[in-house]
Amino acid sequence: MTVFCDWFSAYQEHPQGGLPRINDGAVWCVNEHGEVEWTTERQFVQVGSFETKIRIKCDGYRVKLDGNIGRYNRPDNVFGFSVLDCIGRANDLLARFGLPPFTQAQFNPNNGGMALGAVITRVDLTKNYSTGSHKKAVRLVHYFAGQDAGRRATVKQYGDNGVTWNEGSKYQSSKLYLKSEALGQHCPDALGQWVREQGIARHEITLKARYLRKNNLRHIQDWQAFENGRVISMDNVIYGQFSEVLTRGSAVRTQLDDIPKRLGHLALSWQTGKDLWGSTEYCRQTKARWRKQLLPYGIDIKQPSSAVRLNTRVEIITLQEVQVPDWYWREAA
């Protein structure tokens, strides 16, 4: 399991009611006549060991859970669990509060044909990559700050630590960051040292409710597939649709001169600061064609050039998939 779930949010309606009310108080709105216009119950925050937290709420009819359930009660989350495993962990926690589990959607002819079951409203999928050293991981952050991750995807860099695409989107967003800078104070020292020495860079995608609804990923069974008669999670398949940005720049080269003559001239112009993408000298189709041709060389003319990201001589940093070490679950879980 190379891809795992780093955040999970879901709710489920129980029309029969009668469930325990779980909240952390409520906010009331009262008009000038003393009448309550609306009430909003706050989510109860369940605090586990190692300062881990999960938010839970139940008004008697709707059960809601939100948080990094794979991280809950663990000193770190360098590696984690599939979406299906996280649902199982969430159900274990709900049971402790006397609440029913999240279940697969079932067709209900008595409710206008609506399906009853858990509705997933957010999933974060993540994958670790090794760059070979902390120094290379830092260089990688600067490099990817110059790479566009899709249509209308805004890029934001956080110094040496990470870069985000589409931050704040209500649809989907992604980020790449140094895991060594986000381990938390409870991570074992030996594990932290291993993460830094490996130069672990984490790529993470956040899928919000609108994306999950549009792409039929709102129900538990949508995350299931069958292989050799057993149920497997769809995590790797879904994540793979967002990882194209990580494949850029893999062509072996050492100088801009290696790029074919016309493209090389464009690359040099971009490197020296010319805004090719914003220029009105060329039509949009021409600029789109240039961008497509230059992306394999690690150059995205849609993004401004940076001397930190691209020097005349380029060092190729290869991203290696990180398999879970044999000792991890024995020593870090």
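The record above closes out task 2.4. Task 2.5 opens with a second protein, given below.
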Amino acid sequence: MKLIRFELIKEPGVVRSGIAQGGRVYETEDGQGIGVYEAAEVRPLIPVAKSRSVRLFEPDAETHPEEPPFQYANAALLVGPHQVIPPPPAGRTVWLHGYMAAVLLSDAFRVEILDADDLVLGYSLLLRASQRRLGEPVAPYLDLALALGNVLTTPDELDDFLQDEEFGNHFVLTTAARVNSVERALGSTGTLNLTAAQAISAASMIAPVREGDIVAIGPITAPIEAEPGDEVTIAATGLGALSLKIGENHE
């Protein structure tokens, strides 16, 4: 299923939830269907009502899967798809990193890898926009925004992309990044030296994970440099696409 939070264009401010399917949105309440809308009638919202924590894992060939390092990102910077974010200060550029993000459905502490997939409510795309000068590292205090895709894809819908389950569900999704509709990079989640289950387990060994927390692994394509006015899109088979626009500096 594709889980979605949304508002009707004719009734802004009223948050609704449901399922996106076949170009329509089916509103649900307590598991019961209460409305059907065409895609043009709704505005998707960030698909998680509240996230206290965003953890970013960027594994490489040297990453030890039992103790993978990660960064905490600022959950206050989370935005929905198709947002326009402020441009960076003069002298800085914007770099964008794409991730496969797992949103958690319940609290847990010190969960084992083989149990960690049971904590996943759904997967989405996460696009991290950071400002920096050439040679500076990507650091949380330089982040401009964290954009989360407009739907959560439940794990069962990715069964066709499941390669193995030795260390949790290992989905192999083809990915792409585009700037202003021009393809800039291709990739695959199959190159990541970590599964979401391993990342969730590792995070939970250090501190409890909570309902709504986001655990993301990437980058799923090469990092993309963008300029004010550019629209950057990342896409992955099974997860759809996510776009973010860099605002223009009119000074």
